[in-house]
Amino acid sequence: MIDFVFGGFGVFIRWIFVYKFNSKKMAEAYNSNIEKEGAKNNMAGLFLIPIAIIVGLIINYLG
Question: Which ranges does the record mark as transmembrane (predicted)?
Fold first, then answer.
């Protein structure tokens, strides 16, 4: 379940910032190395959630 949540956020972030909304390029990279791309998606999601929490706390504290 955790991999699903982190992976889902990671895929979304990588699709926007790394692949620049190019789904075809992302699919080609994912099909060439499924395990490596899955690990990258999990790591991106793992970093995104704490960063979002920290930014939210800072905004809440300053506001």
Answer: 6-22, 43-62
- The CA distances from residue 48 to 9, 28, 29, 34, in Å, are 8, 24, 21, 21
Judge contact between 26 and 12, C-beta under 8 A: no
Q: Is 48 exposed, middle or buried (0-12, 13-18, 19+ CB in 10 A)?
A: middle
Range of 39's domain?
1-62
Produce one character per residue of 32-41: b if its CB has 16 or more CB atoms within 10 Å, e if not: eeeeebeebb
In this prediction, residue 63 carries a pLDDT of 78
Res 42: pLDDT: 87
Quote the number of domains for the chain.
Answer: 1
Quote the tokens at residue 38.
Answer: 């899955």
